[in-house]
Task: structure prediction
Amino acid sequence: MKKRGLFISVEGGDGAGKSTQARLLAGWLRRGGMDVVHTREPGGTSIAEAVRRVLLRPGGRVSPMTELFLYEAARAQHVAEIIAPALKAGKTVLCERYTDATEAYQGWGRCLPLDQIRTLNRIATGGLQPDLTLLLEAPVADGLRRARSRGKGGDRLEREPDLFHRRVRVGYRAIAKREPRRVKIVSWATGVEKVHEKVLLVVERFLTGCGFKIRETARASFDRLRMSGFVEARTSVKRTGSPFDKLRVSGIRRGS
Ligand SMILES: Nc1ncnc2c1ncn2[C@@H]1O[C@H](COP(=O)(O)OP(=O)(O)OP(=O)(O)O)[C@@H](O)[C@H]1O
Ligand SMILES: [Mg+2]
Result:
């Protein structure tokens, strides 16, 4: 029987760099021969993307409990349609936000009971948990500034007061403290490449610990990429979705 694939989630506050780092990590894993499905919550399927639009539309009034159920509904569809089948097929799933986000935002941010949230998380996912969670930490104010500057003041959650986002951060830290084996904190550094380097080192340690054979170490890979021109890679993030695919990195081959 085929072995279940690896499940990695990327968490953190708004504007912490989740999408940027997930894209870069997906590129590294793919060059290492992994078949990677990069997805995000809320969303990832057409139903869940529709729920995302309802959830994040600025101005709409949504009660905390409704918000919680909408997130869980989107998650149930996402797990059933994307995550579980990909893992079953032996693929690596890289997901921006997952159950920890609900605990941090709806539990700590909205002050809904944590035990109810954990129960709903379990029901929506059928108990499927990530093998590794990268928790990206950015100073709350900086992250929010970056996130809000993208749209007209940010989406519905990004518009919540800073105090809400500080509670979310405390919540994320509590989860990391409770589950230190699964959740690894990646501390903030100014510069996408510096955080990318930290992410690679954490993932490399994790993969080695699981018995994966790494063909090129994170550091060697990173140095090579830097020499190949990280600036070029960074500027092409949005356009290609997988910037490093353009760069030739010898030493990592596809296949077993
Ligand atoms: N370490 C960093 N140093 C400086 N700028 C960064 C860093 N990481 C990300 N950025 C910039 O911050 C902005 C937000 O990054 P990104 O979209 O990856 O965050 P996110 O966590 O996915 O945000 P959201 O919560 O809104 O989905 C982008 O413009 C990105 O280029
Ligand atoms: Mg994002």
Observations:
- The longest strand covers residues 7-12.
- Residues 231-256 have pLDDT under 50 and may be disordered.
